[in-house]
Amino acid sequence: MIEKRINIENIDGQLFEIKVVDPENSKPASFTHYLHNHKNGVSQYYKKDAISYVKEILKKEYHTEKVTNKVAEEALQYLIFDLNKSVPFPAPENPKFKFIDLFAGIGGFRLALQNLKGKCVFTSEWDKYSKQTYKVNFGEIPFGDITKPETKNYIPNNFDVLCAGFPCQAFSIAGKRGGFEDTRGTLFFDVAEIIKRKQPKAIFLENVKGLRNHDKGKTLATILNVLREDLGYYVPEPKILNAKQFGVPQNRERIFIVGFRKDLEVTDFEYPEPTNKTVVLADVLEQEEVSVKYYLSTTYVQTLKNHRSRHESKGNGFGYEIIPNDGIANAVVCGGMGRERNLVFDDRLTNFKPITNISGKVNREGIRKMTPREWARLQGFPDNFKIIVSDAQAYKQFGNSVAVPAIQATAEKIIEKLNCK
Q1: Is position 168 annotated as part of the catalytic site?
Q2: Which of 2, 40, 247, 404 might form a disulfide with 380, Cβ 3.0–4.6 angstroms?
Q3: β-strands 253-261, 202-208 pairing
Q4: DSSP-assigned states of every residue in 197-262
Q5: With b meaning 16 or more CB within 10 Å and e meaning fewer, what string describes 115-132?
Q6: Per residue in 176-208, is it b (16+ CB within 10 Å) or e — as a string?
Q7: How far apart are CA 159 and CA 151, in angstroms?
């Protein structure tokens, strides 16, 4: 848990220290969102809860009811003063546009759009471990479940771009027209509801490649119908982009959906062209010897070999894969198979003594899993992006994330259309 300590005077003029922590409710999110938006009109959406949050801390820690709004506001000013110096990825000094980050994960969208001088004015993410990673890197606690009306009520007006890597869910559209009401009960409905209420200039959605053919194409058709007909946005045909074409050595195909509010009179949109940058696995591998904990046991290696042999005997190609240094990694995904499909050879290990409970000995073939930092690089995250969670959570977080370079390349095209220069 990240803590922030500040000194402040109470109502009687006594100097004391307070400690700001992260209980699971909306007030800490409001508190950090206020700190990030104190210079713009967006702060009005968060100030009341931010002050209330600080007052609660003061009252609880110092057993006093003598805490005024003035004292709480002074505490907020102390925190604002040093905010951008304490996080790896602060907001840009002079932002050119505003965006919101829904289903934020660990901030792949935010990183990409901040690189383009965008200011994030609202973010939501329900997973508590992802929220920890998000906070330590951006200095902001995401709001929680976006399906709840009380969470939606914190979303400000007048932002430019809505970003959402929303999970794909099936729609019950049999015998129906496949419009806005037919998406109820799905996470896309919540995205659509926010678009309807807030009318952002542009929308930028990301999803798995399989969305295109999900339910024989009916799911995507419903989404496009809602965006185009019910919400009145210009939405060009979605496009599948591959991360490996944008500077990272990972074969990761995702569908991108872009839209513009009709009154902006945008009538055409070109998705970004692939870069000419050639990258291979060796470009993201660790330069120093990797811990023995990432090396597979002899038992595990044999299990993988047996598993692949069984599938091959049935005519299937399913199984583990060792990526050559001059090759391209498979898509990183959640679950063990994401790691087993992206094993590497690394013969630099000098200490073969296990530091985790394994069955058998450490293999001498040099077969190991990629590290969380290597997965981060596969997704385009810079090396100063902090990883503070367990390896299991880190693999999950990066597996769920967007590939930052592909997002950024597409977002740049969107911003060009909005003339946010």
Answers
A1: yes
A2: 404
A3: antiparallel
A4: HH--SEEEEEEEGGGGGGGGGHHHHHHHHIIIIIS-EE-PPPEEEEGGGGTSSEE-EEEEEEEEEG
A5: bbbbbbbbbbbbbebbbb
A6: eebebebbeebbbbbbbbbbeebbbbbbbbbbb
A7: 17
- Tell me the pLDDT tens digit for each residue of 274-311: 997 889 999 999 999 999 999 999 999 999 999 888 87
Q: Which among 163, 168, 334, 420 is annotated as catalytic?
A: 168
Cβ pair 34, 43 in contact under 8 A: yes
- Domain 97-274+401-418 class in CATH: alpha beta
Structure tokens at 280: 């291979």
pTM, rounded to two decimals: 0.85
258 to each of 5, 126, 152, 159, 181, how far by Cα in Å?
42, 24, 22, 16, 21
Give me 185's structure tokens. Answer: 């009960």
Question: Where do the domains of the chain lie?
Answer: 4-85, 97-274+401-418, 287-370
